[in-house]
Design goal:
The protein is of the alpha+beta class. It has a single domain (3-58), classed as Ribosomal Protein L30, Chain: A (2-Layer Sandwich), CATH 3.30.1390.20. Helix content is 32%, strand content 27%. The chain has helices spanning 17-26, 41-49; strands at 3-8, 34-38, 54-58. The protein has a 3-stranded antiparallel beta sheet with strand order 2-1-3, with no helix packed on it. Helix 1 packs across helix 2. The chain starts with a strand and ends with a strand. Belongs to the universal ribosomal protein uL30 family. One of its GO terms (cellular component) is cytosolic large ribosomal subunit. Pfam families: Ribosomal_L30 (PF00327).
Length: 59
């Protein structure tokens, strides 16, 4: 299974509550924070909801 590095690059200020909760579910609490996740449909769906706030690279 592929690993994904997800980095928060934009602020969650003025975003809908669902997007804020999506970032928290991914483990992103601060700007510039990087987390590593397995590539599975659940994680990809969460990333898709906040794709304008994060950058994704393969590890």
């Amino acid at each position: 299974m592929a690993k994904l590095l997800v980095k928060q690059v934009r602020s969650k200020i003025n975003c809908p509550l669902t997007q804020k909760r999506g970032l928290e579910a991914l483990g992103l609490r601060k700007m510039g924070q990087v987390v590593e996740h397995d590539s599975n449909p659940t994680i990809l769906g969460m990333i898709n909801k906040v794709k304008h706030l994060v950058s994704v690279t393969e590890a």
